[in-house]
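Our consortium's second objective concerns turning raw sequence data into structural hypotheses that experimental partners can test. To show how far this objective has progressed, the report includes one record in full. It was chosen at random from the queue rather than selected for favorable results. The single chain below, 268 residues long, was entered without modification.
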Amino acid sequence: MAGNFRDVTPRVWLVGSGGWGGGEQFSRRDDCNVYLIDGGGEFALVDAGLGPENPQILENIRAAGLATDRIRKVFLTHAHNDHAQAAPWLRRETGARIYAGPVTARVLREGERNLTGPMQPFEKFVPWPFEVDEVLEDGGETPVGDLVLKTLHTHGHSIDSISFVCDVDGRKVLFGGDTLIGRQSRADFGGHTFACVLGWLDGHWSAPLTTYVESLKTLQALNSDLLLPGHGVPNDAMTLEKAVKAGIKSIERVLDDPDLFVMFSVSR
């Protein structure tokens, strides 16, 4: 596969993608979206893709004319294999340090299968323990060259999910991981566009639904200009706002209806 990439907004490139949600496949079929941030003096990646190795990610970065030895940080949104398992390989290849939230750090250190994604299509990628270099606290700010990534603990899709927000040349860019994927078109459902796609909820790893609502409200209050989700294609401010409202409404409907809640609890 030749190098593939897309500049999604000034100073941010999509350099890995499994192709879900109407987007193009840039790397492994089951990869999450992997973004490169150009902070001027250094680069950072948001998420890492599937492991144990993922050379297509680095090939895509080089194809964009960017030097991989400038990658100094890898930020993980959560511990699922499709987001985290290539991180130690990227660290070996580039010398970058791995940044993750406290629960993600513990899960990856202990190799806790139930929280790294034991089901298809990820069960064939056996997780192995590894240490992260830096633990990210809620509200903390981490420099990437002349940019700053702010960490938000947005548990919901998983108990360890976090998001990042960054002011990039006057635009507030939200890296939502799988907490909020937003409006997406699904070819396998006849091209139907969903008003909101939330990260897969499963009893092995999802946070309480009330926590998920609070996480979505936290993201809503940011009034971001652009959502860069963990899968699928970007959402602008208008579609992002609609998606957040739809997500909150969907979860609150389940919480308000005892029968729906029982069905949801049993099914997961």
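The partners drew two points from this record. Residues 237-256 form the longest helix (20 residues). The chain has one domain: 6-267. Both points have been shared with the crystallography group to help prioritize constructs.
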